[in-house]
Write a structure and sequence with these properties.
By secondary structure, this protein is α/β, with parallel strands linked by helices. The protein has 30 helices and 12 strands. The strands form 3 sheets. It has a 5-stranded mixed sheet with strand order 1-5-3-4-2.
């Protein structure tokens, strides 16, 4: 017959030394306490009688529940004589095993089950998130977050339940309340590289939306946005609540209108000849490339500005050595942008201009990082209009001039704002049609990149930002005579350049599209290939270079061989002898150990080019040998114990090759 629990006053119960749980979690303890306060003890404790103390027991299993009851009694929530159900053991030798059994075999609920459980409580018991939070000792925000996860798109929730994605990834999908968009992004990422990339998931879900800290949002203001029908969704999965303004088109329109109003007031106050509105935080180079800057005298820094610059510099330098804070990554990035923008604004102060200069100046009004309209620091000379004949007209000429002042039929005067909006609408039409025709897009992209690369001053007359610029080279006076360099020259010389002879960009484009498909494809490969950077092994980006080489299955040894000029004259004699030893052992190394450095380098060139008379096996090995820096494959297997905390993958490769770690300047040039 099974023994039944008995009710014992909590005051008569103490934790047994045989209880195996020695450590606990304060947060979990608080949650347990809140649940017991709401529903009482629902699972009995297990205890042993205390000798010579009738009615007293030491609890071997259920110590956390007992501690929670004692705390509730101290707080006055439970009465002093509150009774607890206890199953009494009479064999002391069973105490430790019983305690271990109760703790060891417990399995925490999965996040998916917890979400559904909270949802069921809301739907069946009619409880509010606040009531659930109180009952389980949680924050209301936590409960709301789990309820949001319960409403994830079915494909995302099933992946969470089946363990295909982590809770962190599911929370990233939950940053958007739209299950259709969640499902689309989930399907788009599929099994790809970014499937578990939380930042990429959030970015794709947020496309067309703005954070509440965005300069546009700060400019428009929360109340005005909501009053206009804008929707806001709170992100329930960050340390601090951040808002997502969903209706991006509405926000952009409101920001543009408000900035235009501010621009009118600025023009009236400052007396600029022309003013243009750009509802962003910066001006694109393409918008000002053909404008001449206005040179004015820059005002000196005030004491307040100098002090603020010092404060901003100290704060910005703090981002290089971050400390643990409650600030999320998005919030930290937004704060950095605001501080940096303020620093740049003080450094690049608007020049002092004469009234005459202002009257002929073009000013751009943009949105500051703080959401305030501001004049872009650089002013330009306003484009001149068609010259007007200053001689006084008379008779028939006077009639013609009067008529010319009126709007020509079918050609009304339009404001700069309207012209910009019409251009944007026109571009939208162009974009959607280019996007729907991949073959057309490929030809356009190839032409754009090739045209910019083959013209002396670039192709600023093309309406796109796409370029295929050759990267910065760290070398000066470098001339390569390798087979690969010669092959590149042949490839370059073989390109059909007939289309480049046309002066007009429209004619060049039509001529390019008229080329044979093979010729256009060659230009595409040439345009992409010339962008590849020369990155030393171990530097940032070198692993991807190696990966591309492996994907292309490049046989380096058949294209490049080490010579005295390109390699052996530039390493130590000991290093050369070491390579000899690696090919033919100590005997081969000793044979050349007495040679002078230059003679040894020439011998090495012959050895590794196959010109040295040696055994067939050694010759084959020498012809396959490459310096580590010329390989497109991992060089060594690093054991876990060799890896220092904080070392990057590229640093590990550099260390394996005996290279110094990447310096900041090297990274900047390589990137």
């Amino acid at each position: 017959m099974n023994q039944l629990p008995i009710l014992v006053p909590a005051a008569n119960l103490t934790k047994s030394p045989s209880n195996v749980r020695k450590a606990s979690d304060p947060v979990a303890d608080a949650q347990l306490e809140a649940n017991i306060a709401a529903k009482g003890i629902r699972q009995n404790l297990i205890g042993l009688p205390v000798s010579r103390k009738k009615g007293h027991y030491r609890i071997a299993a259920g110590g956390r529940r007992l501690d929670a009851v004692h705390r509730l009694i101290e707080k006055g929530i439970f009465a002093a004589d509150y009774q607890v159900p206890v199953l009494v053991l009479h064999e002391a030798r069973d105490a430790i095993a019983t305690s271990l059994e109760e703790n060891f075999f417990k399995l925490s609920m999965s996040a998916a089950d917890t979400c559904r459980a909270f949802q069921d409580i809301v739907e069946t018991e009619g409880k509010t998130p606040a009531e659930i939070a109180k009952r389980f000792g949680l924050t209301e925000r936590f409960v709301l977050g789990r309820l949001r996860l319960a409403d994830l798109a079915p494909c995302v929730f099933d992946a969470l339940r089946d363990g295909e994605i982590s809770l962190e990834v599911a929370m990233a999908y939950g940053s958007s309340p739209d299950p259709v968009r969640q499902a689309n992004v989930f399907e788009e990422l599929g099994q790809g590289y970014y499937r578990d990339n939380v930042s990429e998931i959030r970015r794709q879900l947020a496309q067309g939306s703005y954070r509440g800290s965005d300069p546009k949002a700060l400019l428009v203001g929360r109340e005005a946005y909501l009053a206009a029908g804008g929707r806001i969704d709170s992100d329930l999965f960050t340390d601090n609540a951040t808002e997502m303004w969903i209706d991006g088109d509405l926000l952009s329109q409101m920001a543009g209108d408000k900035l235009a109003q501010a621009a009118e007031a600025i023009q009236e106050r400052e007396g600029f000849g022309e003013i243009r509105v750009v509802p962003t935080t910066h001006i694109a180079y393409s918008a000002t490339w053909d404008l001449k800057p206005v040179d004015g005298e820059q005002p000196p820094l005030t004491e307040e500005q100098e002090q603020r610059l010092a404060e901003l510099k100290a704060e910005l330098e703090g981002f290089d050595n971050p400390t643990d804070t409650e600030e999320s990554e998005d919030e930290a990035e937004a704060r950095y942008d605001r501080l940096n923008a303020e620093y740049e604004a003080i450094q690049q102060r608007a020049p002092i201009l004469t009234d005459e200069q202002k009257a002929s100046a073009l000013a751009y009004v943009v949105i500051g990082q703080d959401g305030q309209p501001r004049i872009h620091e650089q002013l330009y000379i306003a484009p001149s209009v068609e010259p007007v004949d200053e001689e006084e007209p008379s008779g028939e000429d006077e009639e013609e001039e009067t008529a010319s002042d009126e709007e020509a039929p079918g050609q009304p005067r339009i404001s700069q704002r309207l012209a910009d909006e019409l251009a944007e609408m026109k571009a939208e039409l162009l974009r959607v049609h280019v996007a729907s025709d991949p073959r057309f897009a490929l030809d356009l992209a190839t032409f754009t990149m090739a045209d910019a690369a083959t013209r002396k001053y670039g192709s600023s007359d093309l309406a796109t930002e796409l370029r295929a610029n050759a990267p910065y080279s760290r070398l000066t006076g470098y001339e390569s005579g390798t087979p690969a360099a010669e092959e590149w020259m042949k490839f370059d010389a073989g390109l059909d350049r007939s289309w480049t002879e046309h002066a007009d960009e429209r004619d060049r484009y039509d001529a390019f599209c008229a080329l044979a498909e093979e010729a256009r494809a060659a230009w595409f490969g040439w345009s992409i290939a010339r962008t590849m950077q020369a990155i030393p092994a171990g530097r940032t980006g070198s692993r991807f270079v190696d990966h591309l080489g492996q994907k292309l299955e490049i046989d380096v040894a058949s294209w490049w061989r080490p010579t005295a000029t390109n390699y052996f004259d530039r390493i130590s004699k000991a290093s050369i002898l070491s390579e000899f030893e690696g090919i033919g052992g100590i005997e081969l190394s000793s044979r050349y150990s007495a040679s002078k450095k230059h003679d040894l380098a020439l011998s090495a060139e012959k050895l590794f080019s196959g010109a040295l008379i040696i055994e067939a096996e050694l010759k084959e090995r020498a012809l396959a040998w490459l310096p580590d820096a010329m390989r497109f494959s991992p060089l060594v297997d690093l054991v876990e114990g060799d890896i220092e905390p904080g070392a990057s993958g590229d640093d590990l490769v550099a260390d394996a090759q005996g290279l110094p770690p990447a310096e900041d300047d090297d990274i900047a040039h390589a990137a």
